[in-house]
Structures are given as C-alpha cells and as structure tokens.
Sequence to fold (459 residues):
Amino acid sequence: MSKQIAIVGGGIAGVGAAWALHRAGYEVDLFEKASALGGNAKTFRWSADGGHVDSPLLVVAWPQMYYHNYELLLDELGVGIETLPISYFVQTPEGHFCQDGQTGIQKRFAPELRRWKKLVAFVTKVNDFFLPKGRHHSLYHFSYFNPLNLIPLYWMARLFGISRAFWDTIFVPIHCATFITTSMRGVPAVILPLLESIVPLEEPTQMGTWQGAPRQVFDRMTARFSDRVHTDHEITGVERRNDRFVISDSKGRRFEADEVVFACDSASVLSALEAPSGLQRLLLSNAQYVDDVDPAFSSFVVHSDTSILPEKHRQRILSEFNTYSEINEAGALECTFVISAQNPSTKDAGVPMLVTFNSQRVIEKVQKRIDLPHPTHSVSLQNLIIMSMMRYLQGRDGLHYCGTFTTPEGGHDLSFMSGLVVAHAIGADYPFSSDQTDAVADFKQMQKMMLKSGARRPL
Ligand SMILES: Cc1cc2nc3c(=O)[nH]c(=O)nc-3n(C[C@H](O)[C@H](O)[C@H](O)COP(=O)(O)OP(=O)(O)OC[C@H]3O[C@@H](n4cnc5c(N)ncnc54)[C@H](O)[C@@H]3O)c2cc1C
Fold:
C-alpha cells in the first residue's frame, strides 16, 4: 500500500505539495480550515449586471521573469496567462505622483530619483560581487555573506542623500502593495535590485496574471483527488501514535497518516504539535509575519465605492492604474487595489472592484470585510535565519514544513516551490521537464535553502 500523507493548509504551498505527491502515487489528504482552497490567492465573486463575475482579490499578478515554475504549472494545467501593464498612483496632500513623470511631486523629487538610481546601481554591484556569475536574475539566489543582508535599505537611502520625505511619499506608498505593510524600515538593502526590476519607482511595469480567477488553478490541481480535499477542517492536533500520526480538527474529527506536511502559518503548526521540541518552539514561535510588525494591512474592505478616489483623477485611476495609495493630512497611508482595472476577465464587467487596506474613512457599497491573520512573511534577517534553520527540522520524525515561513520572501512561486521541494524530499518526482533550465535552477536552489545536503535527492 502507498504511503498516506496528510497536508495541513490549502494555499499554493500545500496544494502544490499535494498535487506533486498525488501524481507520484501517494495517498494524500489535504486539510484546509477555510471553506475554499487558495489561501491568500482568494477568488471573489462580484455581482454584475444581474449575474456575477469572479476575480482575484489579493494575489493578483506576478513578475514573469522570476516565476518559472509557477508558469510551467499553469501551462500544464491549461490555465491561460495574460501579461498586463501595472502602474501605481500616489495621492499626497501636496499633489500626486504617478509613473508618467509629469507631476509637481516628480519635479520636487527629481534629484532624489537620480540618487535612487545611483543607489540601485551600487547595490547591484555589491550583490553581483557576492553571487556566482549568471545567477542574478532569480528570487532564489542570494549570498549569506553579502553585508547588505544586514543593512536596512532605509539606512542606505539616507546615506545616499535620499530624504525621509522621499521614502514616506514615494517609496512606501508604492511598495506598501509589495510588502503588505506600511512599515519597511527594516527591509534589507540586498533586495533593492530585485524590487526595482519588479516595480521600478519611475515607470510602469508588466506582470503576468491568470485569464480568469485563481480558483481554476486550485480546482484543476486537485481534480484527481477532490474526494480527499477536506475544506472547513481546521487542524488542531498532530500526534504520533506508534508508527502513524493521528490528526484531529477543531470539530473533533480524526484522521490518520504516515507523514504530515505542514503548509500553514508557523503559529498554527506550533499549536497543533503535541509536544514540540525546543528547536520547534524556537523557530516556529519566532517567524515574523507582517501583522506581527504592523497590523495596518491585515484587514481590508472589498467594495465598489469609487468616491474614495479623488474626483479629478477618478476615471483615469479606474481604467489605467492597478494600485492607488493615498497619504492623508494626518500622514496615514491607505492603499487600494483597483482589481477591475487590471484583471482581463473583470475589466469589462461594468462593476468597480476595489480592495482597500488601512481604510481611513467610511466606505459604502461594501461587499465584504476580511481579516487576514498572518497574511505574509515579513522580509527580515530574523526570518532569513529561521528559514535557513528549518532544514534541521525538515523530515524529522515524518514531519515536513513548507509555505511562506520556509521561503526567503513572500511570493506565490516561492511558496509553490517550497511545496514541491517537500514533496520531492518525501519521494515525488520533480514535476516538470529537466530541460527547463531556469525552472530547474530555481528548484535546486530552493532545495539548498530548505534541506540539509543529505536530504536532497537528485532530480
Ligand atoms: C494581500 C496579499 C497580496 C499578495 N499579493 C501577491 C501577488 O500579487 N503575487 C504574489 O506572487 N504573491 C502575493 N502575495 C504573497 C502570496 O500570497 C503568498 O506568497 C502565497 O500565496 C502564500 O501561499 P502559502 O500556501 O504559503 O500560504 P497561504 O496562502 O497563507 O495558505 C496557508 C493556508 O493554510 C490554512 N491554514 C492555516 N492554519 C490552518 C489549520 N490549522 N488547519 C488547516 N488549514 C490551515 C490557511 O487557511 C491558508 O489557506 C500576497 C500576499 C498577501 C497577503
């Protein structure tokens, strides 16, 4: 009989692990506490013209030059990809900044934008020095020896003559959507070239998105074992009984498995473990999520109230911009994803689709208010250390760990890859062709980050 594997968490990491294990002939049981799979990659159903239309809500797009394995997955599942222009609009009490280069704020910050470019060039040079040749354009390659892992980007910006006003007025409002937080002073400088290649401060960029909503990805990945997908199952206990695990949920239901893959947040892992070891306690209780650092973006409003956009620019924002950030007189930062301006399947639905974080005023036409506990990993040295040390727990006594806290940054490709690495360590094959050199290089690098050398099976 094939091994039975329980997977706790139905985001892309858990579903990725389950998909790869099931293809390899393992019996999988996938447990998700919510009523639908997807985790952060939520699909929302909007009412429109007497019918409805589905859209992504939070995970909306990705940088295609970095998401090699995720795009191979979509290709295999037959999910179409669109490339779309991505641009940001920032409203401040003194005027607006958008990526057309023509506003008063742009003129005011022109010298600092030039210094910013110098800073990007400097950090790129330092990073290049510490990385092997040809390994620069990847989310997965970084050097532990690079001193810029330790130095905050904010300090470097100040060193290059960039003002606090530039940081607060330009950098934070644009990148609050990247980091899902307003608190970025601890972000290490090493990340700057990557950030600029994904979201350059001064020009619009392009990203990939699904033709349709993310739900189709999860449906297709689990289609062959849908009877073993247990939504509305919050796992609260994982106990070892002889050679098997007994897994119990908040309603008292019990299941058994030979091995367990945790693909949920670290706090949920820790509270499910029967008798955590010192190392488990140390690592799982110290992984930091953005809501631990700054809860501003951990609750948000899904709505159609376009009055929150400035009247003068409203129509333009609704059709041309993907993210609208506003700093009010008190200095608070509100951020809105303009879903209907970006997703190809929703662009023409005729209903404004807005998702507002850190809402500062009364919003009407509300569809839903959502609290998102432990939304994503915060980018910090502490998390990098925890991620690296997780290798000492991986596979021990039949327990495996994947998902955001086992990856160097929060990102859909990274979480998916962490699920694949764990599935491969258990015994599943790497699911894509070995001719895909970029994808294979990313996979191998992720193996190195997550597993001790003895636990890495060759492809
Ligand atoms: C607001 C926001 C926007 C983002 N935008 C993007 C984007 O545009 N592009 C991009 O690439 N990345 C984006 N990310 C990052 C992306 O969401 C993550 O990298 C990735 O989707 C995380 O997947 P995951 O499977 O690791 O975790 P999650 O998606 O968090 O999934 C974990 C799952 O575990 C479940 N769970 C937790 N505890 C239990 C339990 N006890 N029992 C059972 N189930 C449990 C949770 O309900 C959840 O479904 C965004 C993140 C956020 C928060």
About this structure: The chain has two domains: 4-53+212-288+378-455, 82-209+291-371.
